[in-house]
Design brief:
Layout lengths: L8 H15 L6 H7 L5 H6 L3 H21 L6 H14 L1 H10 L3 H17 L10 H23 L9 H17 L3
Helix pairs in contact: 1-2, 1-4, 1-6, 4-7, 5-6, 5-8, 5-9, 6-7, 6-8
């Protein structure tokens, strides 16, 4: 009798993660994930009832991976939070591109994840204590697009220049002007 190697859930999710980074959810199939981890599709269907459940578990795994990076870093204001996202992009350029910019499944998940962290941070900053929900949405949009642009630049810049930190002070100034505009 041939002994088969036991494939664990974590290995399946890591293989699926790598497939999404390489090809995106558009090309997510059990056979492709099996090929990435060098196994048959049997372990996938033994662990997950169907492909939809496997995709959902992979999405959750991706979110947890990015969230772990975010929560491991200290942030006190919007520029420091923007810098953390830029660090993620610089350290994980392929993942950043796929999850934040390219993949139609991942992009809204990442925006929601960043929005939750953003909202929790903003409510802790005194200058935003009286901000309305509409103003918060506008501030998030400003932050989101600014940060995506800076992070994309960092993801594709091979050397990081300390002068770039000055661009984060631009975010600080912009958000302060925003707060002053809506101050009651």
């Amino acid at each position: 009798m041939v002994r088969t190697k036991k494939i664990y859930r974590e290995q399946l999710l890591q293989g699926a993660y790598q497939l999404v980074v390489d090809e995106g959810f558009k090309h997510f199939h059990a056979r492709k994930v099996a090929k990435v981890i060098s196994c048959s599709t049997q372990p996938i269907y033994r662990e997950f009832e169907n492909l939809t459940i496997f995709k959902t578990a992979t999405s959750e795994y991706i979110i947890q991976t990015v969230e772990q990076f975010l929560t491991d870093k200290e942030r006190t204001d919007l520029p420091s939070f923007s810098e953390i996202i830029c660090q993620y992009a610089q350290e994980n350029p392929d993942e950043f591109d796929r999850f934040f910019l390219i993949d139609e499944t991942c992009r809204p998940l990442m925006k929601e994840l960043i929005s939750v962290h953003f909202n929790n941070l903003v409510i802790s900053i005194p200058e935003y204590e009286n901000i309305s929900a509409d103003q918060l949405d506008q501030l998030f949009d400003l932050f989101w697009f600014y940060t995506l642009g800076k992070a994309a630049q960092r993801a594709h810049t091979h050397t990081y220049n300390e002068e770039e930190i000055d661009l984060h002070s631009g975010l600080h100034e912009t958000t302060q002007l925003f707060a002053q505009k809506f101050a009651v």
